[in-house]
Amino acid sequence: MIRLRQNFFPRFFKTGPGQYGEGDTFIGVTVPNQRTVAKEFKELPLGEIRVLLNSPVHEHRLTALFILVLKFKAARKHPEERTKIKDFYLDNLDRVNNWDLVDSSAHEILGTWLTEQEDHSILYTLSESDNLWYQRVAVIATFPFIRRDDYRHTLALAGKLLHHKHDLIHKAVGWALRDLGKRDRSELLKFLDRHAGDMPRTMLRYAIEHLSDTQRAHYMKKQ
Question: Which CDD domains does the record match to this protein (predicted)?
Answer without folding.
Answer: AlkD_like
